[in-house]
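Continuing the batch. This is chain 6 of the set; chains 1 through 5 are on the previous pages. Same settings as before, nothing changed between runs. Recording input and output for traceability.
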Amino acid sequence: MATWSPEVQKTLGVSAENFNAEGLNKLSPAQLTALLISARPDPRKGLLTCPASGNTPSGRVKVLVTVAGDDPTGAIATAIRDAVASLNEVDVVDSAAAADRALHVVVQEQTVNKRTIGFTASYLTATPCSEEIGGKKTEVELKGTLGTYSNAKGPGLAKDLAGMLDQDLQQVRTGGTK
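Output for chain 6:
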């Protein structure tokens, strides 16, 4: 007959009190060892954990917004964050770990004769996830929509990016259907 050990608790999550109730005492020691070996995760394989999509219609969607590139005053980044925060049922967060979705924007200044005439923005939406391999956890992302917005006058850049994100979030809220 098999007996409980701390390894049974660690690997199977079965306490000494529940060992008999789960019927594990009826296994032979060799059978219990085989069960423990098969239940151990393979350290060479990873576990990917992402927020569930399609489960947010009643709740708020948390969005991480990052902006890089030609924005010396930070005004474009602020405008983009404010426009995203103004979307219905959306909260802007400061970390990938707290986010359901991410919007990454790279801004490039458009110039003619060394004068700024507007901005171009490349953007990417993503789902922040975490991957655990061999006990080491790292932040990763599943890529979403990739696009470019170009408007020489540029006043609607932030509003248009927020509108694009809102369309992307509608797919998230409905589980991938439009």
